[in-house]
Amino acid sequence: MLHEVQRYMDLSPTSVPHKVIRDTEFYNYHIPEGTMVLPLLSSVLVDPKLFKNPDEFDPENFLDENGCFKKNGFFAFGVAVCLGEALARVDLFLFFTSLLQRFTFTGTKPFRGDQHRASVLQLWPHATFL
């Protein structure tokens, strides 16, 4: 559930700037060594190749065919992983667990995909910038 909340809410649609360490070809674009690039993460989070209904809130996006959790590679990984990620995930888990233990939540009318999605930095849906 938390992964889907983070995917759908998309508080930070861009990553931190990265410096290209060697000449690179990306989708037929030449990116010279030393170029600063700003990855647009939100384009991955609404990719229909990765999510069957990318504009809908669907916690099953992170479940495999057996109903088990599957972590996708577009969340932080590798040497660029946020050092505070593990602590942040534990805090999120404890926060939401305590809410669920203390309160009863009921649904309202379903959210429609054409409604405004909140974001700290607002970008256009399905935008790709190179």
UniProtKB/TrEMBL annotation:
One of its GO terms (cellular component) is cytoplasm. GO terms for molecular function: heme binding; iron ion binding; oxidoreductase activity, acting on paired donors, with incorporation or reduction of molecular oxygen, reduced flavin or flavoprotein as one donor, and incorporation of one atom of oxygen. InterPro entries: Cyt_P450, Cyt_P450_E_grp-I, Cyt_P450_sf, Cytochrome_P450_fam2. It comes from the Eukaryota. GO terms for biological process: organic acid metabolic process; xenobiotic metabolic process. Keywords: Heme, Iron, Metal-binding. SUPFAM superfamilies: Cytochrome P450 (SSF48264). The keyword Transport does not apply. Its cofactor is heme. Pfam families: p450 (PF00067). Heme binds at C82. The keyword Transport does not apply. Signal peptide: none annotated. Belongs to the cytochrome P450 family. This is Uncharacterized protein. It comes from Oncorhynchus mykiss (Rainbow trout). The lineage of its organism: Eukaryota, Metazoa, Chordata, Craniata, Vertebrata.
